[in-house]
Amino acid sequence: MTLRRGLVVPAVAVVLAVAALVVWTMTGGEEFWPRWVWFGLGAALIALALAGRIRRTPAGRRRWLVADGALLVFLSPVEITVWLLSGQGFFWPVYSLVTMSVVFGAHVWFVARRPDPRERELSARVDTLTRTRRGAVDSQAAELRRIERDLHDGAQARMVSTALNIGIAQSLLRTDPAQASRILDDARTAATGALQDLRGVMQGIYPSVLSDRGLGGAVRALVYDLVIPVRVDGDPPGNLPAAAQAAMYFAVSECLANAVKHGQAERGWVEFRTARGRLVAVVGDDGVGGASTAGGTGLLGITERLAAFDGTLDVHSPAGGPTVVTLTVPLEDQPA
Amino acid sequence: MRVIIAEDLALLREGIVRLLSAHGFEVVAALEDGAQLADKLVELRPDVAVVDVRLPPTFTDEGLQAAIAARRRVPGLPILILSQYVEQIYARELVADGTGGVGYLLKDRVSDVDAFVEAVRRVAGGGTALDPTVISKLLHAKQRVLPLDRLSPREREVLAHMAQGRSNAAIGAALVITEKAVGKHTASIFTKLDLPVSEDDNRRVLAVLAYLNGAT
């Protein structure tokens, strides 16, 4: 027969309690002394159980509270039992019991009281940061993989072909100059193609026009390339961090691309303004509407990218249009 | 022909100097930053300048700004801008004064030596040389606003080449048709788009660009 580990100690205690009773019966004693043995064993069992409970509570403020409560739970019956067994009389445990109850009550109040607003704000902020940091790291990793793949399949492959063709042309230079010249033509075409690929990759990372002209200028340059007329109003202020500026640029660009691709819009508009320390960009179009972050039109991606800069995206796009996407990012604090 | 070159990458700068020298140009200055560029352009009055858009010290569109500033002081000063990428908005800013003598090409085009030298000469002669990428972006973006669908596919091809700044002869060579056929197409384009007809190649190109830029 195997006893569960947790039952060994109580079993031993029961055996000892019974043994004490047997010894008392056999010795035919006058005073019923086994009650003190039982009292000792009972107290030890309660102490063990409480110690286990404390150990199982996660470290921190709650464990101290549990320990405090355990002390109260342990000492109250012990003192009352001692008072009972020692012939009662004046109820002396009252002093320590009241003191301990007051201390425990204060402890409970302190632990359970509502966290102050600042604390709640900070804890919400930590939650947001944890979530958005994971999103930012994930999307950055995906972005790097995409860049790697683009470079590998595009520019790198073309440079290999360029080098190969130059090598072949070199070996043919004396024996067949005409053929060498044709192969050099191919090499030049491949090199130009590689440049084109690199340009595409670089524009996807940080468009040059954004560093040249800032967000407002870059968006104005962007709308020239669109097939629908887009009106741009307002100008974003300069105190926007470069990375947030890029995120905002790609967000606006994606919204306008959606307007053309999915919204079948005839015209669009972009408006920049600032409100309560944030840059607000409103991108609208007169298309068919029905856009949402759930629609898989890239709006979710934009939301995640903006969230890394504490930016927000809000879509209002009833069926039948118009679609209005409101993007915001916080501005840097103005130097005093 | 006297030429000023402004390019910060030493390899490319030397390459362009060598290339243009070999084709009979006299390089009067080869600058590596944009600080003195506008002043030099006005002071030395080259027959043509080849300028990189992005130059030190700011590494933004310094070259373009210097070119526009210099052309404000000397209208029509021929400048060919080279860039790693092309933006319609920059092309518009360059041709906005309507005086011609401007070029805006991707750096890649340097590799086609003959076409590049031809473009430099064309700009020096008061013509324009706009990158095919800019023109195709321009035509693509305008297809919904301009009545370009009045043109036949062939006429649209001719329009694209013309907007780049090419002469009838060059367009004919590129499309493998006779110069006379190109002339017929251009006349038809001008009629269909209600553009003023001009015998002068450069004026004709500027009219087309103004037309394409005009409707936003």
From TrEMBL, chain A:
Q: Where is the Histidine kinase/HSP90-like ATPase domain?
A: 243-333
Its UniProt entry gives the catalysed reaction(s) as: ATP + protein L-histidine = ADP + protein N-phospho-L-histidine
Q: Which InterPro entries match?
A: HATPase_C_sf, HATPase_dom, Sensor_HK_TwoCompSys, Sig_transdc_His_kin_sub3_dim/P
Keywords in alphabetical order = ATP-binding, Kinase, Membrane, Nucleotide-binding, Phosphoprotein, Transferase, Transmembrane, Transmembrane helix, Two-component regulatory system
Q: What is its EC number?
A: 2.7.13.3
The record ties this protein, via SMART domains, to: HATPase_c (SM00387)
Residues annotated as transmembrane: 7-27, 33-52, 64-84, 90-112
Q: What class of enzyme is it?
A: transferase
- State the Gene Ontology terms under molecular function: kinase activity
Q: What is this protein called?
A: histidine kinase
Q: Which organism is it from?
A: Amycolatopsis samaneae
Automatic annotation (TrEMBL), chain B:
InterPro entries per UniProt: CheY-like_superfamily, NreC/VraR/RcsB-like_REC, RNA_pol_sigma_r3/r4-like, Sig_transdc_resp-reg_receiver, Tscrpt_reg_LuxR_C, WalR-like
Task: State the Pfam families in the record.
Answer: GerE, Response_reg
Residue numbers carrying 4-aspartylphosphate: 52
**Sorted alphabetically, which keywords does the UniProt record give?**
DNA-binding, Phosphoprotein, Transcription, Transcription regulation
- Response regulatory domain mapped to chain residues: 2-122
Domain HTH luxR-type residue range list: 144-214
Q: Which domain of life is it from?
A: Bacteria
Gene3D superfamilies under this entry? Answer: 3.40.50.2300
Q: What is this protein called?
A: Response regulator
